[in-house]
């Protein structure tokens, strides 16, 4: 991947094109505003309540997905009116398509995950749409190195890594409940209930862990609980699986929680588990680490990239519930190891994934986008 080459000029007015109801879009918009940038957010989606009043919001006509095609004239009019120095479209397919149809330039196109991993697999047409959107961009931002390689597999595009950051003050170990020798030992996950996120594998691993501990440490086995936060199409299937495995009395499907409530949920966990089959990054994993919670994650692209194996947690083979169960049992039986890995996870976030660091990286990407546009090496050149 190309390294970001800093220039001395930071854009003062930026237009973001993305889903205003997404906490990720909102955090980028709010963070850039706090850095003194005049941020304009154009969206087909209604804004989340967390969006700062300092961000100028421009609602677009139509709704997704038809708006990705039909709102281009409105985007062109708004961009002409506000005159941004740079457009940053978030999500390479829907809003990336809208940015291309509106001929938004210079363009930093930020890819998030399923836009790269899943969308082009649907058909040749989907792959061509993605390739055209990527080709229109002056520069492409990827949340992870693993996904950057996926983008390169589509075409030889200029790519930089712009990871999501963690608010280490909001996600802090200070909120964690004190350890107990008699209270519940809570395993947990905060993820969408969709096949790619491997919640079924988590249930199977939890069942195996419970069975092993019932034989070796029955007093500890009785304390084990599993909490799963999130919503999705697989809820009833996963609930049925919990019944089939005989762990339904130990498993709580807690439903969707707003992002502001995630720190409180993480504070109640002893181990965070993410066994995704496919994922481009690991925001929730890093949030758990920032709270001092040890993690067990699959070796899918994104999750494995944000964990230091045997230091901040354990990386296990994807779709291997037995291996995951063994690591869960290791952590359940060793409170000192849980505390040690949790502390290392916190330091890992502070070194590499703070929100301020991610904003610095994004601003460098903005500078590089302008540099490419002005040098005549991007699609903006004649």
Major sheet strand order: 3-2-1-4-5-6-7
Low-confidence stretches: 1-6
How many independent structural domains? 2
* Euclidean distance between termini CA atoms: 25 Å
CATH superfamily of the largest domain: Glycogen Phosphorylase B
CATH topology of the largest domain: Rossmann fold
Q: How much helicity do the residues have?
A: 40-55%
Compute the number of strand runs.
Answer: 13
Tally of alpha and pi helices: 16
Shape: elongated
Output the CATH class name of the largest domain: Alpha Beta
What sequence of helices (H) and strands (E) makes up the elements?
A: EHEEHHEHEHHEHEEHHEHEHEHEHEHHH
Tell me the Rg in angstroms: 22 Å
Mean pLDDT: 93
Q: What structural category arises from helix and sheet content?
A: alpha/beta
Q: Provide the β-strand percentage band.
A: 15-25%
Assembly category: single chain
What does this entry look like structurally?
The chain is α/β, with parallel strands linked by helices and 382 residues long. It folds into two domains: 13-165 and 356-376, Glycogen Phosphorylase B (Rossmann fold, 3-Layer(aba) Sandwich); 185-353, Glycogen Phosphorylase B (Rossmann fold, 3-Layer(aba) Sandwich), CATH 3.40.50. The protein is 43% helix and 16% strand. The chain is built from 16 helices and 13 strands. It has helices at 23-34, 67-70, 72-82, 94-101, 114-117, 124-136, 145-154, 199-216, 218-221, 235-245, 262-267, 283-290, 301-305, 321-333, 335-352, 355-375, and strands at 13-17, 38-43, 56-59, 86-90, 107-111, 139-142, 159-161, 185-190, 224-229, 251-255, 271-274, 295-298, 313-316. A seven-stranded parallel beta sheet has the order 3-2-1-4-5-6-7, with helices on both faces. A six-stranded parallel beta sheet has the order 10-9-8-11-12-13, sandwiched between helices. Helix 12 crosses helix 15 (335-352). The longest helix has 21 residues, at 355-375. The radius of gyration is 22 Å and the shape is elongated.
